[in-house]
Amino acid sequence: KLVNLHIQMCKMDILLEQSARLLSFTDQRFRRFLFQKINWNQRLIGIKGARGVGKTTLVLQYLKEKDASVSKVAYFSLDDLYFASHTLRETADKFFKHGGRVLALDEVHKYPGWSAELKNLYDFFPDMQIIFIGSSIIDIAREEGDLSRRALLYDLPGLSFREYLSMKGIIQLTEIKLESLLNDSFSYTDCLKKGFRPLEFFGEYLKHGYYPFGVADSVSNYQRLNQVIRTIVEMDMASLATFDIRNARKIFQLIEVVASQVPFKPNIKELAAKTQIHRNSINAYLHYLEKAKIISLLYPVGNSMAVLQKPEKIFLQNTSLMYALSGGNVELGNVRETFFHSMLSVDHKLNSPQYGDFVVDDKFTFEVGGKTKKKRQVGNIQDAWVVKDDIEIGSSGVVPLWVMGMLY
Asked: Which pLDDT tens digit goes with each residue over 294-304?
């Protein structure tokens, strides 16, 4: 028994060495906006989001900030081969008994029964903080173990235009609340007095700026995005009990069809014919892709976002995906609407109105277009604005499109 215990500790030492190595290479110079919003005092914290948006880096930055020994803070990825023959419970027990107090667990959705084991760790190790990281597809309210009553869950989106500018070292700007932005007495132009020209960088952000890896390496960005999509469909979706991995090919076909038309009003019969997916299953497949942060679904005003309901419009989730999946051949009007949707949907509810392009929080109506866009469609609507591209400064009832990237 002593020999086996020694072997197990040696294997765990390898995990701890890997954790220490990752922490040593973790850069603290740029942090995502969510870092300051997380209540790090909680014992059980969950962070989910699309692949490639920086969830792991954010958690590693927190661990590194603790400035503690390798035995006290650790990062383990649950898709490591170690967990093929060791349980999470026994690993956490060894870690705690040797001084561990903060444990970060990545790729939790790949570990069978992860939610039940996390519940047990929370209940049996009250002196240990647990942070788990998972795919955007996980829904803790539906998992066995009922983590929703125990965990504080956060969702990390991709980079906003504001964060992109910060990560590139161009300029540091503060967040702007939507209500403040729409107040005529509020001035967002102070940053322009510093010589900052937003449109100089906005186009590049739309092409490569949503994912941190695209900022670091725009040359291979589109190739990596295609690989990310393949990983999401073939691996992340496979963890859904209701998804049959044999349908992966059809999912790829659906993504291809959607990418060639977005944003568009879906014709379920036509989508079913093009993808060979039964028309009764199309809405469920679209729901999977939305949870995976590949597409976004826009529903009419007053309608619920039920899985079986047909959306009014389908968007790709962000503009970087638009350029990646179209080979760079995109329609500018679609790019503008997609950017608006991806920025505002982080903290606001969006619907499709009768007039205009979007209604936000059941109150504000927006029409999105280029600098010559008129207010004809929303002119008689209260609390309505035109959002224009290719302008630096707005006016009464007119907001520059780039400013919507300052909301988080």
From this structure: 999 999 998 65
